[in-house]
Recover the amino acids of this structure.
């Protein structure tokens, strides 16, 4: 996870646009299959394991957070960052430390 002080809105916009181009295959919309692939990728990125029950719990929680009464909430009502699984921050810190230690070992 990127520290807040390293966040750059312009870079984020470019990344979002790049992801959209990839996910939509350049046609400007998602088919059912490309939507499912994008949602799978989202679950894969935001969960700590590849356990199907963790994916299902994440997607269920996401659905609850973005809908009400069967309709999507407006963007203004969405809480960013609320989908992180328990232990996510700790796992990311550990992963970053492992990468740093591997880089240190490889440069010695």
């Amino acid at each position: 996870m990127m520290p807040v002080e390293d966040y750059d809105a312009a870079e984020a916009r470019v990344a979002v646009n790049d992801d959209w181009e990839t996910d939509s295959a350049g046609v400007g919309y998602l088919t059912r299959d490309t939507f499912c692939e994008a949602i799978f990728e989202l679950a894969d990125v935001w969960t700590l394991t590849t356990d199907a029950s963790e994916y299902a719990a994440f997607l269920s929680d996401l659905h609850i957070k973005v809908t009400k009464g069967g309709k999507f909430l407006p963007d203004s009502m969405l809480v960013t960052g609320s989908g992180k699984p328990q232990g996510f921050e700790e796992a990311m810190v550990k992963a970053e430390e492992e990468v740093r230690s591997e880089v240190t070992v490889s440069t010695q």
